What we know:
Helix content is 55%, strand content 0%. It contains 19 helices and no strands. Helix 9 (170-184) packs parallel to helix 11 (219-232) and helix 13 (268-278) runs parallel beside helix 15 (315-325). The radius of gyration is 22 Å and the shape is globular.
Amino acid sequence: MRYLHQPHRHGSSWDEAFTAIVLRKRAQAASAYRAADDFAARAPRFTGPRKRLVFQAILVMLGSEPPSGGCELFPRHGLHPWASIQVTAAKVVLAYAAARSDMIGSEDVALLLSTQRPGEVWEGNLLIHLLVLHALSRLPGNVTTVRDGIRTALLHQRDDGGVPFVTDTDTWTAVTAGLALRTAGAPRGSLERIAQHVLRLQHPSGGWSYTDRARLADTDCTTVALEFLHESDPHAYRNPVQCGIQALLSVRGGDGGFPTYAGTPSEACMTAAVINVLATQGSRYQRVIDEAMTFLAGSQEPDGSFPPGWSDSRLHTLFRAHLATRPFTAGRAPVVRERIVRLVRSIQNDDGGWGKEDGTPSDAISTAYGLIVAAGLPDHLPAVRAAEYLLSQQHSDGRIDAPPDMVGPRPLPYHVPVLSDVFLLLSLAHLTRRVTP
Length: 437
């Protein structure tokens, strides 16, 4: 309660709505459900209805009245395991609140119970763990399971009284930091230590997860891990890299694009990330690259932007797509690249930085993303202005402050401060390579 009473510098409107309900002990259904609609609208299109359902369930957990219109079913077919658990927990909470226990099947209860082991947070995801506990607490016969689950959750309460939404993001942090350090020319010994750590975290299937507590591999971590290993030593790590590439190809969509998780819709940012990896292999995967580039081009808006991904800043997908198109001078790539460059140049702020969206104040991490694009331009002025802004934001010890950027569950932002330093380093490394080949 003390944590919730404190002002939080990076809090969102949804955080404020939740906190107001908890602290004031009264339901504010109308404004809360309007926030749910806004929440769903900011999520990627294919996840919007599911996110609205989960958001509504959380509001009911916090004491709001059930949404008008009754309780709707949401099928689990085609969902990856995390989404399937989320949807099931939300369905149980909403069905119970609507006095529709007939909608809760034994298979729903069994699925929720399968995530509960004392002392273990399923897939390292505390949000899902807590959603499941809220659902099970409404059903008879689960008192011991819920009590054990509460004890498990409290193992992860921080010293400030708050609770994170995942146990850690150590694998994602390691691979992104490794790539940034490699690009910046860090000592070989340091890179070798990181590489050996990353290799130990590779799944038998060839992929990587955001944390070693998770079993579900994702395209984001896998692509960055593969880029880092290839850049570090393409000969020594040839076999694990090829194994990882096969894992990526196994989740490829029928549209030529790549999703975050197997069986889910393809996404622009993930497709760009895969192109970056496959381009390191010469012409071996050229047909796959061409089809992926076609998907990427089809995902791009006329103004050069892309649908939202796993970042709260649209510059994130822009810089990854720019890197993906840079090696190619034919086909769709030059058009995609030209649109990105035109957009990035047009939205640079007067102070040299970029904000998360057009017209928003500059922030360090969005500017780092923008600098990676600007570093590759013939005109040096945008990169110089961006570098000046970033250096003005850097502390004497090297770190940099930036608002939360990564989002999960999309579009809720979460804060991993070291990632700001990682992307600052990566952007300055790209600029250094430009001025000192």
